[in-house]
């Protein structure tokens, strides 16, 4: 874990400025500004169609911005390849669990180990002690330590969500982006996931999209409310919950 | 040794490989006459294509319906060399221009085209057999995969390329021999390839090369690259957002498949003694996919069996009921796709192995993957979890 110095503390790890994307004239994200600090857990909430997932798509390069900039550690992400963005230290979990059904839990995790990423690197990749240790450690973190040889497609829904989080942890990203990590989980699984997130957010920044307010309360340092591609409110969970505009468009009376 | 064992796929993999090797290297040469053995040799040249398709289609999810292009390119390169050797001034002295291939003379060509000149050299030819098809695959692959053209669109483009090359070959009659192809191939570096002894030797060289390709395929599949191919087939986005350049991996496996096909094509020209556009176009390309599908698109060895069986069936039925063959072939493909998506190898995995273990009364100790719906008991899972901890020194 790197201990941030005072100088770095003031500089956000991710700075999104004037970000705009339009799909055939419809502005899904409209002149958005968003700053995420080191070691911060930020939760983005908002009604359906607010542009939450689109923001993640823009950061990780899946969707190209129409305008604006995304600075990650002083690197401009809007011009970079998807795989270069990942290698720069941005990890992203998709809304539906995206895992490799036909591979084992072990192989799923190993696949995300940041080595042997070129064609010939992969061809001559060796399972070293370092790889084994990392896989075992991450598997234990995500509650799957006993299921390493299980075929991933046979895991329960919640376990699949954890596995995908584990695949991101293998990359040891500085910015971890999670799209609805507790969707479809049971109450006890949600509690476990909150615990997991609080543990893995040490030493990195986490950006989470979530609808479950109980879960949001248990993890968020700061909450951003998106509405029609713009920031409607930002601040602590409490201040956001009491914001009349937020109650109007999202939380309800 | 341990690493080698792992590469071959453990005990089961070695046994499977040995059975196939015995069949091809011992049983066929001992039981078949020279004519039939040469025929099997011809079938095995298609197996190169099918093995390539297992890698690129079965594991990589890239369905190429134009592998005949690479088979053809490899075959034409070899045929051009052999044709030049067969067209020495002595044996072509009745032509108006002696020393050039006969079909050129018939097309009023009086000088050897520049394209043919380098094929006087055997070294150049052997290199061209590999390099030209791989280069073409590289260009097609980079052009399409970089633009994220995939699935059925990719298949359609490969069909178009197969059609284009066929039309080109047929149209450029003076350069390529047109629809008849390049025929009357006689000697390789002065060695008569039409004699029985030569054909026997070529059969073994062909089989050796095929096993080389299978082993290389196994090496790829057992590396991390093999698992990546499956991962890409399942969840391409996840692989891309795990930091991999997905297109580069697709281009690689497509080039490997092209290389295998080209070797098959060159061996075809050597063993059969001619090459023609009828092995390049859409129909042969689709037939080659059927060989892989019937054998099992997830099995390198299955692809060889598929090529042998379908071609044997083709020869048998087209000798006895020529008009029925195409319907049978179509029906076979539909049946495989609908009922046995993993082909013969899949049937063997699900039924044959059980039957065999029943016969030998040995309990099946190795279970490749747990059956769907069955969760291993914790004890079993623990035991299995221990296996990746083995480290090869």
Automatic annotation (TrEMBL), chain A:
InterPro entries: ABC_AA/LPS_Transport (IPR051120), ABC_transporter-like_ATP-bd (IPR003439), ABC_transptr_urea_ATP-bd_UrtD (IPR017781), BCA_ABC_TP_C (IPR032823), P-loop_NTPase (IPR027417). GO terms for molecular function: ATP binding; ATP hydrolysis activity. Residues 14-253 form the ABC transporter domain. SUPFAM superfamilies: P-loop containing nucleoside triphosphate hydrolases. Pfam families: ABC_tran, BCA_ABC_TP_C. Gene3D superfamilies: P-loop containing nucleotide triphosphate hydrolases. One of its GO terms (cellular component) is plasma membrane. Keywords: ATP-binding, Nucleotide-binding, Transport. PANTHER family: CONSERVED COMPONENT OF ABC TRANSPORTER FOR NATURAL AMINO ACIDS-RELATED, HIGH-AFFINITY BRANCHED-CHAIN AMINO ACID TRANSPORT ATP-BINDING PROTEIN. This is Urea ABC transporter ATP-binding protein UrtD. It comes from Pseudomonas graminis.
Automatic annotation (TrEMBL), chain B:
It is found in: Cell inner membrane. It is a multi-pass membrane protein. It comes from the Bacteria. The chain crosses the membrane at residues 12-32, 44-66, 122-145, 152-171, 200-221, 242-268, 288-312, 324-341. Keywords: Cell membrane, Membrane, Transmembrane, Transmembrane helix. Its main location: membrane. InterPro entries: ABC_transp_permease, ABC_transptr_urea_perm_UrtC, LivM-like. It holds the Pfam family BPD_transp_2. GO terms for molecular function: branched-chain amino acid transmembrane transporter activity. The keyword Cell division does not apply. GO terms for cellular component: plasma membrane. This is Amino acid/amide ABC transporter membrane protein 2, HAAT family.
